Amino acid sequence: MTVVAEGRRAAPARPSPSPAVQPKRRWSLLVGGLLSILLCAGIFAVVQLRGDARIQVLAIARAVAAGQPLTADDLKAVRVVPDPSVPLVKAVEVDQVIGRSPAVPLAPGTLLAESQLGPASWPGAGQAVVAAVFKPGAVPAGLAPGSHALVVTVAKSDVTGTSDATSTPQPVAATVVDITEGTDGTGTTIVSLLLARADATKLAGAGTDLSLVLVAS
Fold first, then answer.
1. Helices then strands, each counted (H, E), the chain
2. pLDDT value at position 111?
3. How far apart are CA 158 and CA 156, in angstroms?
4. In this structure, is the dihedral angle defined by the CA atoms of residues 176, 179, 184 and 187, taken in order, positive or negative?
5. Which of 109, 113, 73, 59 is nearest to 217 (CA)?
6. Close Cβ partners of 177 (under 8 Å, ≥ 6 residues apart)
7. What is the pLDDT of residue 97?
């Protein structure tokens, strides 16, 4: 009797995924991821815009003297969070501002308020503006309109070379209004200063060497 041994049947091979299906799945995942990123970015932008309380207002681009008509070059638009107690001029009102004059000098970067416009009312009561001449080296670097400074009278020296400190006036507090170069060719600087009227009278009649000290606001 002959016995025939049968081998095990091989398991049927599973069909391999079609090469055309896998790229489609990868592309669908990639597109889905990009759409999710764009959606999140859009939601974030909307939330940020709704939470931004800043508005565009007018600011001074360059120094403007009291009574000087404003031009487009004197103004710039900036975004700030408004203070209800300070009525700032909005950027959309620029055409209504051009041609008007500030009542006080305006330094660059100053936010323009409606209260600053009108007939010149400067200098104020009890104040005066005086132009003082300073020799080379007597004006510190960084001095600009709006800076706070001390005007120091340089002590005089007698024939023996000893300085008379007892007769030297005390430093005078002042605010810088304008700075121009002297025209005498010696390197002098002419600085217009806002200070108390009594101090301005003394300073104008001093006739001595002066020096400026820049101080914090």
1. 3, 7
2. 93
3. 7
4. positive
5. 109
6. 105, 129, 145, 192, 193, 194
7. 92
Segment 120-159, tens digit of pLDDT: 777 888 888 888 889 998 999 888 888 899 998 876 654 4
Q: Which residues pair with 126 in a beta bridge?
A: none
For tokens 């007698």, name the residue.
158
Task: For the chain, give the mean pLDDT.
Answer: 78
Q: What are phi and psi of 211, to 5 degrees?
A: -140, 145
For residue 60, is pLDDT > 90? yes
The separation between CA 190 and the C-alpha centre of its own chain, rounded to angstroms, equals: 26
In which band, very low, low, confident or very high, does the pLDDT at 1 lie, cut at 50, 70 and 90? very low
Residue 202: partners with Cβ closer than 8 Å, 6 or more residues away: 169, 172
Task: Name the maximum alpha-carbon separation found in the chain.
Answer: 150
DSSP 141: T
In terms of Cα–Cα distance, which of 166, 157, 161, 153 is closest to 207? 153
What pLDDT digit, counting tens, does each position of 22-40 carry? Answer: 555 566 666 667 777 777 6
Residues in CB range of 114: below 8 A, 6 or more apart: 87, 88, 89
Nearest by Cα to 75 from 88, 66, 67, 63: 63
Give me the half-sphere count of Cα atoms (radius 13 Å) on the Cβ side of residue 50. Answer: 6
Which residue is associated with the tokens 């299906």? Answer: 21
Among 86, 176, 182, 100, CA closest to 135: 182
